[in-house]
Amino acid sequence: MDIFEALMLLCFGAAWPFSIYRSYKSGSVNGKSPFFLIVVIIGYTAGILHKVLYSYDFVLYLYFLNIAMVATDLLLYVRNSKMFQHLKSPALQGLQYPAGSRVQH
After folding, report:
1. Domain membership flag for residue 66
2. Cα–Cα distance between 91 and 38 in angstroms, integer?
3. Which one of 11, 34, 65, 69 has the largest count of C-beta atoms within 10 Å of its C-beta?
4. Rounded to whole angstroms, how far apart are CA atoms 53 and 24?
5. Does 38 fall in a domain?
6. Max Cα separation, the chain?
7. DSSP secondary structure string, 12-61?
8. What is the extent of the structural domain holding 64?
9. How far apart are CA 61 and CA 67, in angstroms?
10. CA–CA separation, 21 vs 15, rounded Å?
11. Residue pLDDT, tens place only, 7-44
């Protein structure tokens, strides 16, 4: 059992729900890097492969949990990016959105 690896994954994993929540609520891509998210997914995939091939234990499930959260954040980035591009379309220029709406210019 790799208790230190599990602790590392729990610590890293603790940050993702906050990032996901912020991405969902803000509707913005500010402060997000799809390149970074993809690199993290690749890293977690490498950890999963190592666990499956050489050291199968419960830590594998923490990798799956973390990769699912990062993938969710990446999907929200794509969604928010598309919403932002939609707002920039010429047909929508000059429209006013109600205060407190999730979509911001």
Report:
1. yes
2. 33
3. 69
4. 35
5. yes
6. 59
7. HHHHHHHHHHHHHHH---TT--HHHHHHHHHHHHHHHHHHHHT--STHHH
8. 34-89
9. 10
10. 10
11. 999 999 999 999 999 999 998 888 899 999 999 999 99
Give 36's contacts (C-beta < 8 A, 6+ positions apart). none
pLDDT in tens, 55-103: 999 999 999 999 999 999 999 999 999 887 776 666 555 555 556 555 5
Distant-in-sequence, close-in-space partners of 96: CB < 8 Å, separation ≥ 6: none
One-letter amino acid at 17 equals P
Distance from C-alpha of 71 to C-alpha of 59, rounded to nearest angstrom: 19
In a domain? residue 80: yes
Provide the whole-model pTM. 0.78
- Which tokens in the block code for residue 51? 């666990």
Inside any domain, residue 7: no
**CA dist., res. 14 & res. 19, Å (int):** 10
Residue 81 identity: S
